[in-house]
Amino acid sequence: MSDLKFTILSSCYNKNKYLREWFGSIIKQTYRPIEIVIANDCSDDGSYETLLQLEKEAKNYDIEFKLVNNSKKLYCGSSYSNLVKYATGSFYGVVDSDDMLVPDAVQYIVDLYRQYPQVSWIYTQFTTCDRHMQPIQKGISRHPPEGMSILDLGEKRKHSYSHWRTFSNKINNPSELFCQNLKCAVDKYMGYKLEELGTGLFVDRVCYLYRQGVKRSVAASEKTK
């Protein structure tokens, strides 16, 4: 199963100062084959030019790089939904363009999918970091208590599945995992859909480094629908 490709999905809006670190964490992955499918969502800070350069460099690390330049701003939901049609992997993981992975994250996830063939999506734990990627604390990603769903926790305004969010090609129509025109809470919506579409797994192991304190493209208080 070493030929099973892992697709990293990402969307970039004005994250030029973080793209090198994001890319660096991907090329350090111990697993191959990997493809990156990323959208430039109408950035105006030089992100597009940097992504073009990274597209060239990716070949040196045996990584496929597909850059989609959005003709109009789609925000996260529609941008990710559009990206899926360019992806060719057996497994998928969302890595925001200002965040990073630990070096063996992809290998660890692929091994879990091999070990549990009935599983179609996996969530891991994350570490919250400052803007300079210095660790602050362990994340708050967790599975719902027995007898409850992620939607139940959402109604109680309690956080559940978060980074790192991954899924396999057992999920039919993966573009539906990302709600069109959704500007925030994209990961929450994705969690709700995955829970409906297949058997999942939560592991309390850090695979993802979340950069806190970065200016987002929408306000935290903005309604999701």
Describe this structure in words.
With about 220 residues, the protein is of the alpha/beta class. About 30% of the residues lie in helices and about 25% in strands. It has helices at about 15-25, 45-60, 75-85, 105-115, 150-155, 185-195; strands spanning about 5-10, 35-40, 65-70, 90-95, 100, 120-130, 135-140, 165-170, 200-210. The longest helix is centred in the N-terminal third of the chain and has 12 residues, at about 15-25. The chain is globular, with a radius of gyration of 16 Å.
Assembly context of the chains: single chain
Q: Sketch the major β-sheet.
A: 9 strands, mixed
The number of helices is 6
Computed CA radius of gyration, to the nearest angstrom: 16 Å
State the total count of DSSP E strands.
9
Distance between the termini: 40 Å
How helix-rich are the residues, as a percent range? 25-40%
Strand content: 15-25%
Succession of helices and strands = EHEHEHEEHEEHEHE
> Pairing-aware structural class of the strands and helices?
alpha/beta
**Approximate shape:** globular
Low-pLDDT residue intervals, each spanning 5 or more residues: 218-225
Task: Output mean pLDDT.
Answer: 90
